[in-house]
Amino acid sequence: MRNERIRRSHKKHFLVLIFVVLSAGFLFGCNGVDEDEPDPTEVSSEKRVEIRLKVQ
User: Fold this and answer.
1) What letters, b where the CB count within 10 A reaches 16 and e where it falls short, cover 11-31?
2) Using one digit for the tens of pLDDT, what is the confidence trace for 8-46?
3) What is d(CA 5, CA 16) in angstroms, rounded to the nearest whole number?
4) Nearest 5°: CA angle at 47, between 44 and 50?
5) Cβ contacts of residue 51 below 8 Å, gap of 6+?
6) If we measure between CA atoms, which residue out of 24, 6, 26 comes closest to residue 14?
């Protein structure tokens, strides 16, 4: 009887641990930024060349 309660307790703790790890992974791993999309705040190399030519 006591061993059964201990097993249930361990099973509950294990499931909670798995849930916490997966939740943290989704929160920190899925930040909504697509790595393939260019950064809209970054100036493209063509624009940099145009800016340099205008300045000179």
Assistant:
1) eeeeeeeeeeeeeeeeeeeee
2) 888 999 999 999 999 988 888 766 666 666 666 766 666
3) 17
4) 155
5) 43
6) 6
For residue 26, what are its two tokens? 């989704």
Closest CA to 38 of 46, 30, 27: 46
Could you give the 3-state DSSP secondary structure of residue 48? helix
d(CA 41, CA 28): 23
The encoded tokens of residue 15 equal 């499931």
